[in-house]
Each structure stands twice: as C-alpha cells, then as structure tokens.
Amino acid sequence: MAPIAKKSGKGKAPKTTKKFIINASQPASDKIFDVSAFEKFLNEKIKVEGRVGNLGEIIKISQTGDGKIEIIAHNELSGRYLKYLTKKFLKKMQLRDWLRVVSTSKGVYELKFFNVVNDEAEEDDE
Fold it and tell me: Keywords for this entry (predicted)?
C-alpha cells in the first residue's frame, strides 16, 4: 500500500467558543440541590485533552444568578458530556430518582423534578 500523504495545511481551524447553561434553580430553591458543590464537581471532573483538572484558561465555570451555572468553553466541549456529568453528580448525591436533566434549548440544560402521579388513589378506586 502506498503511504498516506499528510495534508500540509498550515492554518488551524478557528477557535470555537461554546456557552452552556445548566439551570438548577428549581431544586436549588427547594434546598435539595447544592449549586456550589455541583460547580466544584464540574471543576474537578471535566476533562481537557484527556486529563482531569486541566481546565486552565480553556474552560470557565461560573455560578450566575439563582441556581444557574454557566460554562464557557474555548474548545470542543459537547453538551452531552455536561449532561453525563450532571447525571453522575445527581447519582452521587442520591438525587437521580427525583431529578432529571432536560435540554430546553441549544446549550441550555435544566434540572426538573419527575412528574409523580399518585398511583395509590387509582388503585383504591378499582
């Protein structure tokens, strides 16, 4: 087989800046979700170039408003990865049974309570 020629493009792709917002205001107002602990968790767990704790100037995580966390990434960071980390935090805090992560629009994730239907009242009627 012939060797594969490398492309000699000197120009790199332009830097992409993505902004993500995780809105946890609903569970934070009920005092079951600690936003500052979640911010610390994200700082510790987000991987940059395959290494944990390597954020530097590439990714900024800040707490804005009541129960909102804003992530500004100057590299390729996927929203699915943030959703995965949010679910992992919920599981760690044993909140996964009550909360779910829903994408309300592009780059915006919201923590919502599961809709609990009272099944016992329906069973009593039968």
Answer: Ribonucleoprotein, Ribosomal protein
